[in-house]
């Protein structure tokens, strides 16, 4: 049971703007995340997997948080998950988003403790434990095209 002291906060549609016209901020990759964003731009959902212990690494980083190994391989993911949590943001935290917008934390099928945040695509609000599937949203701004992830009902 989730305690929501202000249920009216969740009353707005998850995405009042159609996905095709939804504004999104351009990612600004750094050394460790650049390969992730390159893959997302190619519509490939892949994460680092430790060469020693097999743990998935999120966010991408140089060293495994479980065994301190520097070796890894980029491995494709199924894109399937379940809703762990979600929030409707009425305050714009990053320039480029239009309020309100919904962010869903999806628990990936590949590993119990691996959750990935992304925007929500859907007319209905997400629900905890709902099966979801990742989708790629292509956007264009003054610098060119880029892609971000979103979740939709599976």
Structure in a nutshell:
The protein has 154 residues and is mostly beta strands. Helix content is 5%, strand content 38%.
Unreliable spans are: 1-20
| Annotation, overall tally of beta strands | 8
What is the H/E string?
HEEEEEEEE
Strand order of the largest sheet: 4-5-6-8-7
Topology:
Layout: H1 34-41, E1 46-50, E2 56-57, E3 72-76, E4 80-89, E5 101-108, E6 115-121, E7 131-141, E8 144-153
Parallel strand pairs: 6-8
Antiparallel strand pairs: 1-2, 1-3, 4-5, 4-7, 5-6, 7-8
How would you describe what is shown here?
The protein is built from 1 helix and 8 strands, in the order H-E-E-E-E-E-E-E-E. It has a 5-stranded mixed β-barrel. A 3-stranded antiparallel beta sheet has the order 2-1-3, covered by helices on one side. The longest helix is centred in the first third of the chain and has 8 residues, at 34-41. The protein is 5% helix and 38% strand. Mean pLDDT is 87; it is low at 1-20. It is mainly β.
Please describe the structure with a list of short key phrases separated by commas or semicolons.
single chain; 154 residues; mainly beta; 5-stranded mixed beta barrel; 3-stranded antiparallel beta sheet; 8 strands; 5% helix; globular; disordered N terminus
């Amino acid at each position: 049971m989730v305690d929501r002291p202000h249920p009216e906060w969740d009353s707005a549609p998850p995405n009042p703007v159609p996905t095709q016209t939804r504004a999104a901020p351009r990612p600004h990759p750094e050394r460790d995340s650049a390969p992730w964003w390159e893959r997302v731009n190619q519509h490939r959902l892949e994460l680092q997997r430790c060469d020693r212990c097999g743990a998935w690494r999120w966010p991408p980083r140089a060293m495994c948080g479980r065994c301190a190994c520097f070796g890894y391989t980029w491995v494709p993911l199924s894109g399937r998950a379940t809703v762990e949590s979600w929030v409707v943001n009425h305050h714009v935290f990053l320039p480029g988003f239009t309020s309100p917008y919904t962010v869903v934390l999806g628990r990936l099928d590949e590993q119990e403790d691996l959750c990935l945040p992304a925007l929500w695509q859907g007319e209905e609000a997400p629900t905890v434990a709902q099966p979801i599937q990742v989708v790629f949203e292509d956007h264009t701004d003054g610098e060119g095209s880029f892609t971000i992830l979103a979740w939709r009902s599976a």
